[in-house]
């Protein structure tokens, strides 16, 4: 008995708690479903109060309808409400108006139209080459044998006047002996009393000397020959300039002919750099402009040069213009064949009206910007542009269409342009559709008919019915079983006065 009481003492509260819990859960579900139902009712009532302008295909905004249904792709049409349309509208003057919330969501930023000294930094690649004005070809003007070679390999540096080789030429020996005889004869004839003899001796001596000079025998060597009377077996061929031997065709002991190219020497203290520029960059370049250059293998070191020459033709395959730059190279850091990074600061256009490059929309036929008019209003405006340049090459020169201190859209302008074009197209479509509906309604209205006449007061006694056509219905076309006609008793007509 005590055990039963104990069990009952624990079971009863447990059952009460379970009952309370079940009741609370049921009540919660009931209240929750009631709240959901009330929210759905409020939402549906809100949608019912909103004005629907038209129905739109979800995949093609330009596909619009007057009533709900399916799009061409078989998708459910979505409604476009009037309050949504007000967030972006296009007025008759092509002004685009956007509410502040949409402006913030689109991330629209603006920049200012201003004036500046306008230039352009042009970057390109150049190739270091020899200065063609300081290339020297060394050859002999006399035939003979190379007796001694003083320069033995390509790349060897030489100084101006340094001996390159010794040439033995029997013809040269004979000419030196003839010169000594002419010199001796001139001295002897100098004391002659006959003037013509003295003149002939002088002319002979000058002719022998000229022959030696034409063979590039230096004057100092001729003077030594005159003073000592000793004929030199060989002649030294010397370097015409300081530089580096870049070609060598001479071999010691070889026989050479007059005019044969033996050495080619390049003075590398100045070098040319050939750079290519695109057609639209050429107007920024003038001869004499300063230019900077740096090498990839010597980072951080700049070289300063100038524009030496702009070639007067366009290379057809590359569609670029060749420009020659000249640089001083005292340390011989610039070696022909190297590639270098070239930076050229173009000519300066003073007080130019410029606009940020990112604000411009190029459609092919027109160039547009969106001018911010304030309070969410933007005006698409067509402009004419000039050169591109400025800091970071991020500006365009404005030739016409904008004024100083105007604000232009620099971001999201493509979205603004597409939205404005879409809204403008939809408005035109709606206007055309409404105009077509008005025309259809007017065409369906009945034409003005004369008012029916009242025959009750007409006098039929004076009317001639002989010419009147009273067509009778075909009896075959009338079903007597379905049509019953009863003449009222009091509606009999007196035709005694009618004239048939």
Strand content: 25-35%
Sheet having the most strands: 6 strands, antiparallel, barrel
Low-confidence stretches: 30-44, 87-92, 448-455, 470-500
Q: How far is it from the N-terminal to the C-terminal residue, by CA?
A: 128 Å
Task: Put the structure in a nutshell.
By secondary structure, this protein is α+β, with helices and mostly antiparallel strands.
Describe this structure in words.
The chain is of the alpha+beta class and 500 residues long. The protein has five domains: 1-49; 52-86, no CATH class; 96-118 and 351-421, conserved putative lor/sdh protein from methanococcus maripaludis s2 fold; 121-131 and 267-347, Efflux pump adaptor protein, beta barrel domain (Elongation Factor Tu (Ef-tu), domain 3), CATH 2.40.30.170; 141-259, no CATH class. It contains seven helices and 28 strands. It has helices at 2-49, 82-85, 100-106, 170-189, 195-214, 219-228, 413-444, and strands at residues 52-56, 64-65, 78-81, 88-90, 96-98, 109-112, 114-118, 121-130, 135-139, 144-149, 157-158, 163-168, 234-238, 243-248, 255-256, 261-266, 270-278, 290-295, 298-315, 320-328, 339-345, 349-356, 361-362, 367-374, 377-382, 384-389, 395-400, 407-411. A six-stranded antiparallel β-barrel has the order 8-17-20-19-18-21. Strand 4 (88-90) and strand 5 form a beta hairpin. Helix 4 runs antiparallel to helix 5. The protein is rod-shaped.
């Amino acid at each position: 008995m005590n055990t039963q009481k104990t069990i009952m003492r624990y079971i009863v509260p447990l059952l009460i708690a379970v009952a309370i819990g079940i009741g609370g859960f049921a009540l919660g579900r009931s209240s929750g479903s009631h709240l959901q139902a009330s929210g759905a009712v409020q939402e549906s009532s809100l949608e019912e109060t909103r004005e629907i302008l038209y129905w739109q295909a979800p995949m093609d905004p330009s596909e619009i309808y007057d009533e709900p249904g399916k799009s061409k792709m078989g998708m459910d049409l979505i409604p476009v409400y009037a309050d949504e349309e007000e967030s972006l509208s296009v007025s008759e003057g092509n002004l685009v108006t956007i509410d502040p919330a949409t402006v913030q969501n689109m991330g629209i930023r603006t920049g200012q139209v201003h004036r500046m000294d306008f230039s352009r930094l042009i970057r390109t690649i150049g190739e270091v080459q020899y200065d063609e004005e300081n290339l020297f070809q060394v050859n002999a003007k006399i035939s003979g044998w190379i007796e001694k070679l003083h320069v033995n390999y390509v790349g060897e540096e030489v100084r101006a006047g340094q001996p390159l080789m010794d040439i033995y030429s029997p013809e040269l020996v004979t000419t030196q002996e003839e010169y000594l005889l002419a010199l001796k004869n001139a001295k002897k004839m100098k004391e002659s009393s006959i003037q013509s003899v003295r003149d002939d001796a002088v002319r002979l001596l000058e002719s022998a000397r000229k022959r030696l000079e034409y063979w590039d025998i230096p004057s100092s060597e001729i003077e030594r020959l005159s003073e000592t009377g000793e004929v030199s077996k060989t002649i030294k061929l010397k370097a015409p300039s300081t530089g580096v031997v870049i070609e060598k065709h001479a071999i010691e002991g070889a026989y050479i002919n007059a005019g044969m190219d033996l050495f080619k020497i390049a003075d590398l203290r100045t070098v040319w750099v050939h750079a290519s520029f695109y057609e639209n960059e050429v107007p920024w370049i003038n001869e004499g402009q300063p230019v900077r250059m740096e090498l990839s293998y010597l980072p951080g070191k700049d070289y300063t040069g100038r524009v030496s020459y702009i070639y007067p033709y366009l290379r057809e395959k590359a569609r670029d213009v060749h420009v020659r730059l000249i640089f001083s190279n005292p340390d011989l850091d610039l070696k022909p064949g190297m590639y270098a990074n070239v930076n050229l600061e173009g000519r300066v256009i003073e007080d130019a009206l410029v606009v940020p490059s990112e604000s411009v929309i190029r459609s092919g036929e027109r160039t547009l910007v969106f001018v911010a008019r304030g309070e969410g209003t933007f005006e698409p405006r067509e402009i004419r542009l000039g050169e591109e340049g400025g800091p970071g090459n991020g500006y365009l020169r404005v030739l016409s269409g904008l004024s100083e201190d105007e604000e232009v859209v620099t971001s999201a302008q493509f979205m603004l342009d597409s939205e404005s074009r879409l809204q403008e197209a939809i408005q035109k479509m709606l206007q055309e559709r409404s105009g077509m509906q008005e025309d259809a309604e007017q065409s369906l209205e009945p034409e003005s008919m004369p008012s029916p006449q009242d025959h009750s007061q007409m006098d039929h006694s004076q009317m001639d019915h002989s010419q009147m056509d009273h067509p009778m219905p075909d009896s075959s076309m009338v079903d007597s079983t379905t049509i019953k006609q009863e003449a009222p008793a009091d509606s009999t007509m007196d035709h005694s006065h009618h004239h048939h």
